[in-house]
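Subject: complex prediction, re-run

Hi both,

The earlier run crashed halfway through, so I resubmitted it with identical inputs.
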Amino acid sequence: MILASLLGNYPRIGDRPSEQVLRRALQAADRGEGPPSALPDAEDEMTRMAMSEQAEAGLDILTDGQIRWHDPVSHVARGLTGFKIEGLLRYFDTNTYYRQPAATGPIGRERPFLVEAFRFAAGVAAHRPVKAIVTGPLALSRLSRDARGRGRQHLALEIASALNREVRDLEAAGAGLIQIDEPAPAWNPAEAELLRLSMRRLVAGLTSARVILATTFGDATPLLPELATLPAAIVGFDVPAALDRMGAAGATADGAGDLGARLAAAIPPGMGLLLGVIDGRNTRLEDPNETYERRVRPILAALRGGAAPAPEVHLAPNHGLEFLPRDAARGKMRVLAALRDRARQEFA
Amino acid sequence: MSDSGPVTREERALPPGLLLPLSTIGSFPKPERLKQARAEFTRGRLDASSLRRIEEEETTACIRLQENLGLDLLVDGEMYRGDMTAYFAENLEGFRISGLVRSYGNRYYRKPVVVGAVRWSRPITVEWFRFALGQTARPVKAILTGPYTMMDWAFDEHYGSRESLALALADVVRQEAEALVAAGARHVQIDEPAISVRPGEIDLAIRAMHRVTDGLRARTITHICYGDFPAIYPRLLDLPVEQFTLELSNSDLGLLELFGTSPFTKELGAGVLDVHSHTIEPVELVKERILAALRVVPASRLYVNPDCGLKTRSPEEAEAKLRNMVAATREVRRTL
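This time it finished cleanly. Structure:
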């Protein structure tokens, strides 16, 4: 099975006035104007717009575009207890920011904070599946300030336990796919053990939902053996980053084939792959033919080459698309759908 | 422009012996009438000369405000600039400007796209610098966006190499800095807020800054904010500039602790106002922040400024914050 989806977020603004309803609602709310319902109404409207653009592009799995999230870190930390939200920091090497949470007390979760938005999105999507997205414990613990000084590991595991309640509630609300975003492991291979412990806690008790572990902001393939043993149905990789690390070879079909072979050799039967094959950080639009021949086809061919049944593959951008202007994001989705169609023709 | 006379070569220095010079980072809030005029101009309902007249009036008002508040090293207030990278990209060859991208909260910018070789063909900020200088007897600091940040905050569809693009931009920024010095600038600030995003590239950022500042006949300053300072400190101090204006208040003075690990050897422009908060910091709090900075650098090397550009605040908030900054600084000066 070859499917196309976003990684997560999607622009919440565009150049047309109709694409700026949320901006206007936030401005009005900041001035204390308008009814209290204006802001959630605008968030609903931009969410619908983000989802209809994904559907129009022909994506198979939708996300709500994370339109309601101020940033990937504080949105989740605000939903948990034990965090105080502090000053602005840059989010990795992006020209965007997050508010840094400080862990000041025991980390817990009193009530669901992602479930209502998931239900809304599932209602909008009608028959298409919606993937719920949760920032993972490694990223949250790394990007937070450990004000109690109890150590990274302690904090990550506490967060994993608290988020476990949220993912179980998401499952109960009907989420069949839950994606855990972990930008951290790609930068810190030494953290494989903490990733394993926290993932176990995070997904404990899930029965029907399939978990996607998405690694972003770098190449996580050095962790392949460890990632392959994690309790996840699908593991995601930043393909341009992995190819970049291979130097000149990475730009060739042979290099991509080598990457595919490494993936094929590492993942156990039944585990799927999310392949971030489109660059979600640059406006330069990939040529579908060239990208297919040099990047997608060699990887898929290697994955189909093994004796075991071919794994489920989700083709996606390597990052959320909110780093791009809306017209570029739409263009990227069109390329993604074209790649998926070519791949299905050849490999389905 | 009303001041287009011959280049003035007068030396504008800070008063000798002045301690804790008061300055700002560059941008001031745009008054409502200017925002409306910019919007009307974009829609084609206002001509360029009418917009220019309003920008000049508001620049003059901004200079008056800084003088009245008692600031020592002024800025032109950037009434004519939008975003700090897009403004330069719009005036250089090799760029086009993208659609809106969100930076944080409800703030958006048009991110530049590099589509060809970047080239400097004419001065960009010099006329405005001269105009500002003509409005005051005090020194005026020129503000440029640094090459590493220009590179990191653009989409690159042409160079395919962060190093090549950063160094090409360094040559461009150098040309603009030379033109400013020729127009009388004695303080040139080259902003590099992106510098900490890839700690492995700090050497590239330093090389690029050398191209901008080596042999430049001006006091050189860099502004850095909201970054992962521990990842690049103390290597950061190898940036070839004399002064760093840094955001201290947003991080609750956490940076000062870092300077305890390795001495801060440059002049410090201490950020004592949080520009992302509506709260008007009381004089006492600002004083505490200045005194904390004085525990890290001596008074002879300390400047006082807000964390970052003030354009994120309303004109009223910016003025009230600055008023307390001036009052606090004066109180601290009396104790020195």
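Residues 1-9 of chain B have pLDDT under 50 and may be disordered.

- K.
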